[in-house]
Amino acid sequence: MLNKKKIHIVDTTLRDGSHAMMHRYTEAQVTAIAAGLERVGVDFIELSHGDGISGSSINYGFSAVSELDLLKAASTVVKNAILTVLLIPGVGTIDDLKKAQECGAKAVRVATHVTEADVA
């Protein structure tokens, strides 16, 4: 259970940070970064393609490694933090979310661009 008096840290390096790398994180990089975030006590570690679950596409850029494989890699070292993913309606689906859960995701953040809220 989360402590309501604590400020909880959400780190998006393994999701938003992938934009700067053209979505080229490797399993070794993800494992090392996730282990470091775990070690310093980050509460939530968000991991998915920069544009969310199933964002790896011609529209948003292809990932070097499947995000499901990256989630599996991170879940081997994340024991206390909550491994999360980003779901953008219209990009990812409930089925994608279920697959992410099977690979270690425990929470989801849902987001959309303000200009697309009417179709999300």
TrEMBL record:
<dbReference type="Pfam" id="PF00682">
    <property type="entry name" value="HMGL-like"/>
</dbReference>
<protein>
    <submittedName>
        <fullName>4-hydroxy-2-oxovalerate aldolase</fullName>
    </submittedName>
</protein>
<dbReference type="InterPro" id="IPR013785">
    <property type="entry name" value="Aldolase_TIM"/>
</dbReference>
<dbReference type="GO" id="GO:0003824">
    <property type="term" value="F:catalytic activity"/>
</dbReference>
<dbReference type="InterPro" id="IPR000891">
    <property type="entry name" value="PYR_CT"/>
</dbReference>
<feature type="domain" description="Pyruvate carboxyltransferase">
    <location>
        <begin position="6"/>
        <end position="117"/>
    </location>
</feature>
